[in-house]
Specification:
77% of the residues lie in helices and 0% in strands. The protein has nine helices and no strands. The longest helix has 33 residues. It is globular. The two termini are 27 Å apart.
Length: 239
């Protein structure tokens, strides 16, 4: 059962960090760091939200104090170290730290009993393995296979965009396969074909067309194979 305290802490966090934090506050904090008045406005917003949402909760002041102090410390660390970390990693590391603090406070105040059996569950281990195969392993395998053809494309594109698009499309295909929603795979393939059609017709380059088709079919094929592998092994494990 999900803890009500945990949900309240999450709600306060997302309201304070996303909805009630204007862009000019963020820019001022990045420029002035600990001297920015908006850093303290931001912390005050969190304190008020927690005060409202947690009213009547046991250990009221202790919970608010723990969350506010941890949030302030994490924000300070981000402000002074984010220049050394490439975006968007700084953002995700900051959010993971905040959410970890929320989990810790909720667990500490409600004495959660942790169930570590999930890490020995073969179904979860199988899912983790197949996700790894679908994303990182498949990307490297495709890079090795396609490296034999060197296609010169003068079109300007975002750095590593193709890699991330491939990973996302394989995740979608993998998800569609394991829930047996094959129509989704067909829709995704059709949508990608439509988006790519303009590039291929403008290029008038048969080699580029073949290169894109090979990459697309390899990407979809690997994701489908990983999805079918998961379904088969899942049946054997749960049989």
């Amino acid at each position: 059962m999900i803890s009500v305290l945990f949900l309240k802490l999450l709600l306060a966090h997302f309201l304070g960090d996303f909805l009630l934090q204007p862009t000019n506050w963020v820019k001022d904090k990045e420029a002035k760091k600990i001297r920015s008045k908006y850093l303290y406005y931001h912390i005050a917003v969190h304190a008020v939200l927690l005060g409202i949402l947690l009213w009547g909760t046991a250990n009221y002041f202790s919970i608010i104090g723990l969350v506010v102090v941890s949030h302030y410390a994490i924000d300070l660390l981000k402000l002074y170290f984010e220049d050394r970390i490439v975006q968007p990693w700084a953002f995700f590391i900051d959010q993971i730290a905040h959410l970890s603090a929320v989990v810790f406070v909720a667990a500490y105040c409600e004495s959660w009993i942790w169930n570590w059996d999930v890490f020995s569950n073969p179904v979860y281990m199988l899912l983790a393995l197949c996700l790894l195969l679908t994303t990182v392993v498949a990307a490297i395998v495709m890079k090795v296979l396609i490296a034999t053809w060197k296609i010169e494309d003068d079109a300007v594109s975002l750095k590593n965009a193709g890699k991330y698009i491939g990973i996302l499309e394989r995740l979608f295909v993998f998800g569609f396969v394991i829930i047996n929603f094959w129509e989704g795979v067909g829709f995704l393939l059709a949508a990608k074909s439509i988006f790519r059609f303009g590039d291929l017709t403008r290029s008038k380059d048969r080699k580029l067309t073949e290169y894109v088709l090979i990459g697309t079919l390899l990407s979809f094929g690997m994701a489908i194979a990983c999805g079918l592998l998961f379904n088969k092994l899942h049946q054997l494990i749960t049989a």
